[in-house]
Amino acid sequence: MAGLGPGYESLTVPTRLGKTHVLALGPEDAPPAVFFPGGNFLNPTCLSWFLPLAERHRLYAPDVIGQPGRSAQVRPSPEGDGHAFWVEDVLDGLGLREPVPLVGLSYGAGLAIRAMGLAPERVSGAALVCPSAIAAGSVSRMLVEVVVPMLLYRLRPSQERLLRAARPLLTEPRDPAFGPAVRQLGAVYRHLRLDTGLPRMATEEEIGGFEGPVAVFASGEDVFFPAQAVLPRAREIFPNLAVAESLENCRHLPSKAELGRVNELVLAFLAKPTEPGNGR
Predict the structure, then answer these.
(1) Are 141 and 226 in contact, with CB atoms under 8 Å apart?
(2) For the residues of 105-142, what is the DSSP string, one character each?
(3) Phi, psi of 196 (to 5 degrees)
(4) Which of 146, 68, 145, 72 is nearest to 108 (CA)?
(5) Alpha-carbon span 108 to 116, nearest angstrom
């Protein structure tokens, strides 16, 4: 959390699933935005990759319920609407009564989509980065590239095995900027009961009532949610898709350079959400 720099606040809000810890940073009088981090990982680390958004927004980032962090350890069924009700409660607890933009990373993007479907009047727009709940990659490839290296690392932890396990997830696992993420991944693999239930896939019927603009950024080499599967389906289910961007040569977490570019594009989207993107 110290890596977020000075000025962040640590808040706790009540929800029907239990207390939720929220990090808040950015100017208090700036337009609000809510950030949902990835699953099976730490909120402050995910938030650190999107710090530029706090330069122009009051950014709220909750520790997802049932995930690593300081929120209640209750895991709603991914097939139900528990996460969407939780999002509503978090917005209420933060006093965000007017529609707000949501920014979601991976699992967090799936939670944003749940909220867009269940409570479209609470969401003004959504920027979804490497998103779950739109389309998925090959299960056999996930087993070979992600599960097997994870199990080998658990069996006999070493730095080399940890890097091998991190390679399918992080585009630049050896870059010092991602050193904390690699170390945290090792702790997650050793000590966490992983949540394997991703948010269910969105449907046109579910999203039909959401009229706000949507931006989708998907990585070309993502083993979980590859751009070649995500972007065509995003065009099918989001009639108000303003941006559809493929992050080339990136794995699940994009490179430092591409994360910087994504932040710029998300800021531009939040400033002018209805302006069409390049649709790549």
Answers:
(1) no
(2) ETHHHHHHHHHHHH-GGGEEEEEEES-SSS----HHHH
(3) -95, 0
(4) 68
(5) 12
Chain position carrying tokens 């122009």: 56
Question: pLDDT tens digits, the chain, 280 residues: what are they?
Answer: 888 988 899 999 999 999 999 999 999 999 999 999 999 999 999 999 999 999 999 999 999 999 999 999 999 988 889 999 999 999 999 999 999 999 999 999 999 999 999 999 999 999 999 999 999 999 999 999 999 999 999 999 999 999 999 999 999 999 999 999 999 999 999 999 999 888 889 999 999 889 999 999 999 999 999 999 999 999 999 989 999 999 999 999 999 999 999 999 999 999 987 665 444 4
Q: What is the pTM (predicted TM-score) of this model? A: 0.95
Domains and CATH numbers, the chain: 2-137+198-271 (3.40.50.1820), 139-191 (no CATH)
